[in-house]
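Reopening this one. Same input as before:
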Amino acid sequence: PDGQPLRMVRRERLESHRLVEECMLAANEAVAKWFRTRGLPTVNRFHAPPDEDKVAMFQTLAGVYGVKVNTKKSLEPTSTELNSMLEQLVGHPEQRALNQVLLRSMMQAVYSSKNLGHYGLGAADYLHFTSPIRRYPDLLVHRLLKAAWKHGGKRAGPHLDAERERLELLGIQSSERERAAMQVEREVIAFYSCLMMKDRVGEEFQGTVSALTDFGF
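Same output, byte for byte:
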């Protein structure tokens, strides 16, 4: 009632959530493939392969705890192989810390008119047609899809390259605003976390060290 935070709770992820996520992913891939097979421009969701050095560090660290990833020599692990590795971590005492290390090795996904695939999902075609948070790129895809349907789903002529350039600029702007929104969200959570703990200075709590930085743990 007074605007102060009362508690922090772990967000539940139910089977119903997983079902909706699977349907969402299937829709996103299907629409992305529809655009690609017709050679029509759209706004894709691109997720590049992770930083090789960081993945190697993660593999070494996980190996210390008995978690191995089976991959061919001289090749970086695929997203499927990394997922298999994460499954080995379920219930492991160091699951949370190792998950954080792997997460930090991943590149940030961006919006682009280029169709370069989504490493994290292991998808060759992917965009945001529908997402839990309604985003502007979703709306762009809806408009492009409706416009394509209007013309029978055919190539629209010589202006396709200009359209791709326009969509690339919109993708860059959407990626920038996404990062800005994420930063605001982190700052708000940190602020309310501090409000919740401000009267508990001096108490001791259990924690997990998941990283070392230049300013501490």
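So the earlier flakiness isn't reproducible anymore. For the record, Helices lie at 15-37, 52-64, 79-89, 95-105, 136-150, 160-197.
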